[in-house]
Structure formats: structure tokens, C-alpha cells
Amino acid sequence: MASAISHIVYAKKYFDRMKSGELRNEFSDPGVNRYLLKNKDEFILGAVFPDIRRICNNIKRSDTHSAFEIIDLNFEGLTAFQSGWKFHLYCDMRREEILNKYGFYSIKGAADHCCGSAKLLEDELVYDRYDNWEKLVCYFNNSSKIEVDLGALVARPTLDLWYAILAKYMERKPDEKSMHIFLSKLPSLAEKADEVIESIERLRKKEKAVEILRGVMREIV
After folding, report:
1. Residue ranges per domain, the chain?
2. Average pLDDT of 57-70?
């Protein structure tokens, strides 16, 4: 699983390849692609939605990460938000395949804090690959204006809070201070924030770990 910034950067790569015509797979439907390109900000909202469980104790991981029977890049019949949601799950799956292929978890500390340290380090490493964070932060801070049908899964105030937390986290390239603030907003990690930051610092010094995390972007989509 990747963290929010990484999911956004990987979504950007998906759209860049779609626009350039590089993206060729069995699900590349021109009509669907045009729709997603037109609504890519809503796609990105969906791409960071599944981890809302981090701030909502009554949502299980399976509620957001088992929402689609088949995990692939077929977005036919889905809204832009649902497509981004499904893309999140696809990236989680591909990322694990890539990390396992290169032996990432054999590195000491790579799986610390349920891999949370690696996820935040990955955010730091890929942040500069997205070129319009200011616009996206504004969009996230105004997410309450976006119609999203989630039924009874998540209350609207919780959804808006999640995007506000992410907007603050994305304002600038992650560093020790911004990561600590972000972690403090997540009930399951708040008490361990200091330990996670120390773990990130140790992992950052491991060249192989950094090389593998940087390489995820090359292969993920």
C-alpha cells in the first residue's frame, strides 16, 4: 500500500501516459479515457479515499479495499471518483508486487509500523514528480462541493475532514515536522509518531531501500 502523495503522483503518471498515447492495455477505451481526463481531479479524490479508515474507527479495511471484485484498469461504467478508488487498489497491488520482486522487505526496518515508515518515505521521494500541488490543495479544501455517493459508508463531515487533513499534509514536500503533524491526526499512529519518524530516518539512510521505493514509479503503471 502506498500513502496519499504517492497515490496522487501515480495517478498523474497514469494520466500523462494516457494523454501521450503510451498507455496501451485491453481496457483503453477512448470514451472512458476522455471522461477521466475531463474529471481527473475527482479521480484523484477517489484515489486517496480508501485510507479514510485511518481516521474512522468504524470503517474496516475490507470496507474500502475490497470494494471491487476484480482489480484492474477497467473503469467502464464507473464514476471518476469510483475509478480513482479502484486505481488506488490497483496501485496497492502493483506496488506490493514490485517491492517483493526487488526484495524490499528483506531490508531491516522496511516493514516497521505496518510499513508506515516506508510509505511516508516514498511520499517524500516522489513529491516533486507532481507539479501543481497548490491547485490540488485548494480542490481538496473545497471537496465538500463535490457530490460523492458513498451511501452509509462514510458521513460527509468525516469525508471532508479526511481531505482537509490530506490538503495540509500536501502543502509542501514532506519533512519530519509535516509527517509528524500528519501522523498525529491518525488515531492508530498518533501515539507512535515519534517512533515512525525515527524509523523513517533510519530507512532513508539505506540506499537499497531508497532505490527500490524510487523505482516503484517506473513500473507501477
Report:
1. 4-219
2. 86
